[in-house]
């Protein structure tokens, strides 16, 4: 690629600026970005970071965080998504910029509820831990100085004086090892985690922390800063929510998933109504199995359930005619007569298929949407059982589905750690008798498709998705936000610049 001399100068200036702005590949993300960015960049940075954090979540549950597999897979993902992946790389300023901006965009999207904040914090912490531990000792030192966390290393005399105490209070540290390692004198407040776990020597209000444990201190510090920053950003919610440019984008980020759009069907009409009972047992995720069972038992579902289940059925291939027949047959077995069904319920089913009202072709709900919005109340059956059921009830349900006790324990452990989609993946593995499902679950219809592929020996026709790998862009909510106001990289707003993002991160 050739540059004209002006372009070359501009390029050099830009590189210089970036070098100054991002002296390290690792960041504490203390200063929000001040530059204007286009909607296209905003969207693609945000999607990539979301992908990265999903991978961090998946890897964190499937592998030990210090294992080689964990590190290799995470590095591969960082490389693929063009985030800084090697501490020593000197020319990754664009990657550092992307890292910086994308973190702040997701911070805006994920400050909006307690659940979102907790998830974001956990994944960012894991990502940071990996990156910090990948630094060489000298780069760690540089980074610590950069973020004003330079701790005082104790001198040899003091170390020799305290050698016995250091060895007996620091697990894994024999006397010769104490002699080899550098120890830092750290204020107690910074070493709370080590102190609680009895992994550090304490004297006169100071913890004596070996170099290899310094990551705990740094992570603690980062966690405090980030959770405070998230709480602060949450205070800007009223202004974020009234910003017409941002609110639809951010809502979609926190409720969307990064995967195919299940509204595009090439299996429409391939499923008969008679198959649904059997499919609900074999191939429906727990949320849909629960809805199907409730419908069969009470011959009715409330609005939230009809929306969630109706769109899922549409996604697995039910035609409008089949859907009308399916719902009507069931409802008239309960308290609703045929006339009332035609007047009161048929409209909303046609509406879901884009035949009424705004004629939006509604897409089935993703896991994120089901987990994050419209929680069920008494008498509702929608939602995600892993997120919304009482653990004891969930346990009973899994027992009734003949899941072995050890499997139930694993699922409940994941639920306890708030890894709801991973709990669902585990449920898939247990009900399909596979060790590793080999995909990252994001959508109930994906669960169905993958289950059918597996059960039919891979014969399930692979759907072609027109916007594979892109956001679920169509509006899922009944209230309907015009899709032109949602994330898109190809509309007329593509070149629009977003300015003034930093205003949301400042104190007032
Ligand atoms: Fe349904 Fe997704 Fe929850 Fe599984 S994780 S039960 S597919 S919402």
Brief summary of the model shown:
The chain contains 24 helices and 6 strands. With 508 residues, it is mainly α.
What does this protein look like?
The chain has helices at about 5-20, 40-60, 70-80, 95-110, 115-135, 135-145, 155-170, 175-180, 190-195, 215-235, 235-240, 245-255, 275-280, 285-300, 305-315, 320-330, 340-345, 345-350, 365-370, 385-390, 390-400, 405-415, 420-430, 445-455; strands at about 35-40, 150-155, 185, 200-205, 205-210, 495-500. The chain has about 500 residues and is mostly helical. Among the domains are: about 40-145, Transcription Elongation Factor S-II, Chain A; about 150-215, no CATH class; about 275-455, no CATH class. Strand 4 (about 200-205) and strand 5 (about 205-210) form a beta hairpin. The model is unreliable at about 460-495 (pLDDT under 50). The structure holds iron/sulfur cluster (SF4). Iron/sulfur cluster binds near residues 285, 286, 367 and 420.
SS strand fraction: under 5%
The number of helical segments is: 24
Number of strands: 6
Structural class per helix/strand content?
A: mainly alpha
Output the helix-strand order. HEHHHHHEHHEHEEHHHHHHHHHHHHHHHE
**Largest sheet descriptor:** 4 strands, antiparallel
Q: Based on CA inertia axes, which overall geometry fits?
A: elongated
* Heterogens: iron/sulfur cluster
Strand order of the largest sheet: 2-3-5-4
> Compute the gyration radius: what is it?
26 Å
Helix content: 40-55%
The low-confidence runs, each spanning 5 or more residues with pLDDT under 50, are: 459-495
Distance between the termini: 45 Å
GO biological process, one term: DNA replication initiation
Protein name: DNA primase large subunit
Keywords: 4Fe-4S, DNA replication, DNA-binding, Iron, Iron-sulfur, Metal-binding, Primosome
Pfam family, one: DNA_primase_lrg_N
């Amino acid at each position: 690629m050739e540059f004209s001399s002006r372009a070359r100068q501009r390029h050099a200036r830009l590189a210089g600026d970036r070098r100054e702005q991002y002296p390290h590949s690792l960041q504490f993300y203390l200063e929000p970005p001040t530059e204007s960015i286009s909607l296209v960049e905003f969207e693609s940075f945000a999607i990539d970071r979301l992908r990265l954090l999903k991978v961090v979540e998946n890897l964190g549950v499937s592998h030990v965080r210090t294992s080689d597999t964990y590190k290799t897979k995470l590095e591969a993902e960082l490389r693929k998504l063009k985030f800084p992946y090697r501490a020593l790389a000197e020319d990754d300023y664009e990657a550092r910029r992307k890292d910086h901006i994308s973190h702040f965009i997701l911070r805006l999207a994920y400050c909006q509820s307690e659940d979102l904040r907790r998830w974001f914090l956990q994944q960012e912490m894991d990502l940071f831990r990996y990156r910090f531990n990948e630094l060489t000792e000298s780069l760690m030192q540089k980074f610590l100085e950069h973020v004003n966390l330079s701790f005082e290393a104790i001198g040899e005399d003091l170390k020799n004086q305290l050698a016995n105490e250091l060895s007996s209070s620091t697990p894994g540290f024999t006397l010769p090892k104490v002699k080899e390692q550098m120890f830092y004198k750290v204020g107690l407040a910074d070493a709370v985690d080590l102190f609680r776990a009895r992994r550090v020597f304490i004297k006169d209000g100071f913890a004596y922390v070996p170099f290899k444990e310094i990551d705990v201190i740094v992570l603690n510090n980062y966690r405090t800063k980030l959770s405070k920053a998230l709480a602060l950003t949450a205070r800007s919610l009223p202004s974020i929510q009234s910003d017409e440019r941002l609110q639809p984008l951010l809502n979609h980020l926190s409720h969307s998933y990064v995967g195919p759009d299940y509204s595009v069907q090439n299996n429409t009409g391939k499923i008969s109504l008679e198959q649904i009972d059997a499919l609900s047992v074999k191939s429906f995720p727990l949320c849909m199995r629960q809805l199907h069972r409730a419908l069969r038992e009470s011959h009715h579902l409330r609005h939230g359930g009809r929306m969630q289940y109706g769109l899922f059925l549409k996604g697995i291939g039910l035609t409008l005619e089949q859907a009308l027949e399916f719902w009507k047959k069931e409802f008239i077995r309960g308290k609703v007569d045929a006339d009332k069904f035609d007047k009161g319920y048929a409209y909303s089913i046609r509406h879901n298929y884009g035949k009424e009202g705004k004629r939006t072709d509604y897409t089935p709900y993703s896991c994120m949407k089901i987990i994050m919005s419209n929680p069920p109340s008494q008498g509702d059956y929608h939602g995600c059982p892993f997120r919304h059921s009482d653990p004891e009830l969930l346990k009973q349900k899994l027992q009734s589905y003949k899941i072995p006790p050890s499997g139930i324990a694993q699922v409940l452990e994941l639920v306890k750690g708030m890894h709801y989609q991973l709990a669902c993946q585990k449920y898939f593995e247990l009900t399909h008798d596979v060790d590793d499902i080999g995909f990252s679950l994001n959508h109930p219809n994906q669960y169905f498709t993958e289950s059918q592929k597996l059960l039919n020996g891979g014969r399930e026709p692979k759907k072609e998705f027109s916007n594979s790998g892109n956001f679920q862009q169509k509006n899922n909510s009944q209230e309907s936000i015009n899709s032109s106001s949602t994330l898109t990289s190809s509309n007329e707003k593509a070149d629009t610049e977003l300015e003034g993002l930093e205003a949301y991160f400042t104190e007032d």
